[in-house]
């Protein structure tokens, strides 16, 4: 087991920079998830750590040693691929033991390690089968088993659950978390699925256009996003961004959303935003769960307004409501019994204690 | 009781309708439609392959003048002739050696081509296929010139190194070498293109997984490439074995079976005896001899393919 460090790592393909000088420190035993839209450079970063891609610039260190020119087999890493990459002509046991056999481990030790990994992953019964005789979930377990038996310094996962159906994905997500709790190997996990990122990671690295947007715990990213990209990427449905401006009215700071709608900011927020220039183009960032139905006992900092709902989506435990504020589409989350109907007016409440204010031009959260 | 009494009646009225719908169903079934659509080709194959095959079986049982039934007489006669056994031996040497080298060269060249960047690959693929595209009767004529006893370009070139002159088609061993060489030159591109297709179908991630598992390039070929290509290798080898065993044009043009029958293979010897020697029944008997030999090879190879087919 080891820590991993990336120092100003760059990957260039001809004229295109896929990864633009990223710095990342991954602690020993840590579970790091790289997340971002396709083409953001997350898989390339993982493949550079694995040694499957050369790095154009910068340094990669595993366990304190620079491994820029070390071939994959000598980096002491194990990788789980999206399409499993199991050898179709080998049995489960042969697949799992392949790396150890190449390194001429004693037969008894190979058997012990394979048995232990199979037990851990609950695939003992499948040990003599060929990959073709396994389901997608079982194949993914075998792929993980192949990584575990090697007892490597670092596990690398490249979108391992993308090929599974939704139900199995949830199940395997929990399995991966359990396995990590047991073996505690440093793990770098790549996914485009923010739910996977949030549920698995000790820390999440959000990437966009070859750069790291933000590194933080799932809670930090959710509640304190640094940029508009992170704020919009993490959370489903996504955070609403509503054009707004700050106004001083009678000594209090007001947030004006439309000609009709303006709210006085709660004191803590007012103090934070008071110094901002009033002319700036600003965006209000508010998550759907902070836009709920209005009721009698609203706390301080929660303001109400009327809206005509365009569409409602009953989800069972909640109903998503969609409406427009001066042409900006907005999504809210209301109680299923609040009586939300398509085309009907509704009184809604906005919790300004959980609002974010963003610079529209730079995308920075203020 | 009432049920039992009513039943025969019911069946009696329902049956014609059921029959008709049964026929309609059979016609609508996909397998029936598929069979009907392939029927023209099946008839064509029957006419062009099965009829001649049975006709040659019939011919092989006749005497030289094709007037009298002699049973297995022609085969008995062949078994007693040394030339026949020479042809059997030569056919085996020719086919096996040529196929082995074609497969080996095809495999190596396919790897080289596979590693050429996609841009230039088409050009190389096209150029490397040329020997296979030229009709062998024509290209063999060119080889004949290269091997010509008086004007051999090879011997001319080798003379600069103090080697030769080599009797390319004049000496038994060299003549065998020459016909195999030309056959390999002609057939290797076929292997190359088949192996290239197989190589392209091996997912890159398998190689990456193997690289991470610690396999060097040789272990990657041995543990990943070869097992993944096994079926293609088997089928290509079988196909080539059949075609090479039945080869006619290259040997016919290059050596015509000489010197002293030392390069004859089944097809050329069957031609010599059957057409040139006017003993068509004996020629048919010779050519029929390829069937059991190839059948054994086919059974072994296809059984392996079937077994492996369930893995990929």
Outline the structure in words.
The complex is a heterodimer of chains A (366) and B (312). Chain A is of the alpha+beta class and 366 residues long. Helices cover 25% and strands 34% of the residues of chain A. Chain A is built from nine helices and 20 strands. In chain A, a hairpin with a 2-residue loop joins strand 11 and strand 12. In chain A, helix 4 runs parallel beside helix 5. The model of chain A has no long low-confidence stretch (mean pLDDT 89). With 312 residues, chain B is mainly alpha-helical. Chain B contains 14 helices and no strands. The chains are: A alpha+beta (366), B mainly alpha (312). Chains A and B meet through strand 6 and helix 2 of A and helix 9 and helix 10 of B.
Present the secondary structure layout.
The complex is a heterodimer of chains A (366) and B (312).
Chain A: E1 4-13, E2 16-26, E3 31-35, H1 42-50, E4 57-62, E5 65-66, E6 77-80, H2 92-102, H3 107-121, H4 136-149, E7 154-158, H5 166-183, E8 186-191, H6 194-200, E9 203-208, E10 211-216, H7 218-223, H8 228-233, E11 240-249, E12 252-256, E13 262-264, H9 267-273, E14 282-286, E15 291-293, E16 302-314, E17 319-325, E18 328-334, E19 345-351, E20 356-359
Parallel strand pairs in A: 3-8, 3-9, 6-7, 7-8
Antiparallel strand pairs in A: 1-2, 1-4, 4-5, 9-10, 11-12, 11-14, 12-13, 14-20, 15-19, 16-17, 16-19, 17-18
Helix pairs in contact in A: 2-3, 2-4, 3-4, 4-5
Chain B: H1 2-28, H2 30-59, H3 73-79, H4 82-115, H5 118-133, H6 136-146, H7 153-159, H8 172-200, H9 204-213, H10 217-245, H11 249-254, H12 266-276, H13 280-288, H14 290-309
Helix pairs in contact in B: 4-8, 4-10, 5-8, 8-10, 10-14, 12-13
């Amino acid at each position: 087991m080891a820590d991993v460090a990336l120092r100003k790592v760059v990957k260039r393909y001809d004229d295109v920079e896929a990864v633009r000088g990223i710095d990342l420190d991954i602690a020993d035993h840590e579970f790091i998830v790289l997340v971002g839209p396709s083409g953001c450079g997350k898989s390339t970063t993982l493949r550079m750590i694995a040694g499957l891609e050369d790095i154009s610039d910068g340094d990669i260190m595993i366990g304190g040693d620079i491994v820029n020119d070390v071939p994959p087999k000598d980096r002491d890493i194990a990788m789980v691929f999206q399409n499993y990459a199991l050898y179709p002509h080998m049995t489960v046991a042969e697949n799992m033991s392949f790396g150890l056999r190449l390194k001429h481990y004693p037969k008894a030790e190979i058997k012990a390690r394979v048995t232990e990994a199979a037990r851990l992953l609950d695939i003992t019964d499948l040990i003599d089968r060929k990959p073709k005789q396994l389901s997608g979930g079982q194949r993914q377990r075998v792929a993980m088993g192949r990584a575990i038996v090697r007892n490597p310094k670092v596990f690398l996962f490249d979108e391992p659950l993308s090929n599974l159906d939704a139900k199995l994905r949830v199940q395997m997500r929990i399995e991966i978390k359990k396995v990590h709790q047991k073996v505690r190997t440093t793990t770098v996990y790549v996914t485009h699925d923010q739910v996977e990122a949030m549920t698995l990671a000790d820390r999440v690295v959000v990437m966009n256009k070859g750069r790291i947007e933000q590194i933080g715990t799932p809670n930090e990213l959710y509640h304190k996003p640094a940029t508009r990209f992170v704020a919009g990427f993490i959370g489903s449905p996504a955070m609403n961004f509503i054009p707004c401006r700050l106004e001083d009215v009678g000594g209090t700071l007001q947030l004006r959303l439309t000609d009709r709608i303006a709210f006085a900011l709660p004191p803590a927020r007012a103090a934070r935003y008071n110094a901002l220039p009033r002319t700036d183009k600003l965006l209000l960032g508010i998550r759907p769960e902070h836009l709920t139905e209005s009721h009698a006992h609203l706390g301080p900092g929660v303001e109400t307004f009327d809206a005509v709902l365009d569409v409602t989506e009953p989800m069972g435990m909640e109903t998503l409501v969609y409406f427009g504020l001066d042409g900006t589409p907005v999504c809210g989350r209301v109680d299923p019994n609040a009586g939300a109907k398509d085309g009907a007016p509704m009184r809604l409440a906005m919790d300004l204690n959980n609002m974010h204010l963003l610079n529209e031009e730079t995308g920075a959260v203020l | 009781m009432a049920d039992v009494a009513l039943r025969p009646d019911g069946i009696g009225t329902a049956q014609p309708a059921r029959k008709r719908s049964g026929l309609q169903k059979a016609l609508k079934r996909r397998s029936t439609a598929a069979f009907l659509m392939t029927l023209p080709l099946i008839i064509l194959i029957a006419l062009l392959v099965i009829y001649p095959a049975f006709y040659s079986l019939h011919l092989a049982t006749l005497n030289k003048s094709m007037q009298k039934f002699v049973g297995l007489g022609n085969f008995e006669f062949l078994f007693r002739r040394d030339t026949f056994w020479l042809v059997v031996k030569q056919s085996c040497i020719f086919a096996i050696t040529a196929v082995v080298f074609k497969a080996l060269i095809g495999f190596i060249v396919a790897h080289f081509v596979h590693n050429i960047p996609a841009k230039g690959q088409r050009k190389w693929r096209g150029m490397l296929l040329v020997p296979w595209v030229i009709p062998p009767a024509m290209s063999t004529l060119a080889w004949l010139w290269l091997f010509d006893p008086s004007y051999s370009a090879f011997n001319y070139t080798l003379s600069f190194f103090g080697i030769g002159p080599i009797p390319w088609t004049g000496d038994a061993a060299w003549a065998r070498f020459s016909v195999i060489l030309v056959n390999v030159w002609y057939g290797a591109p076929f292997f190359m293109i088949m192996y290239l297709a197989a190589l392209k179908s091996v997912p890159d991630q398998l190689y990456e997984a193997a690289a991470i598992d610690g396999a060097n390039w040789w272990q990657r070929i041995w543990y990943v490439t070869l097992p993944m290509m096994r079926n293609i290798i088997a089928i290509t080898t079988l196909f080539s074995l059949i075609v090479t065993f039945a080869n006619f044009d290259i040997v016919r043009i290059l050596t015509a079976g000489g010197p002293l029958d030392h390069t004859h293979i089944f097809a050329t010897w069957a031609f010599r005896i059957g057409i040139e020697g006017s003993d068509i029944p004996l020629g048919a008997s010779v050519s029929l001899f390829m069937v059991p030999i190839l059948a054994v090879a086919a059974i072994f190879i296809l059984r392996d393919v079937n077994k492996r087919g369930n893995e990929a």
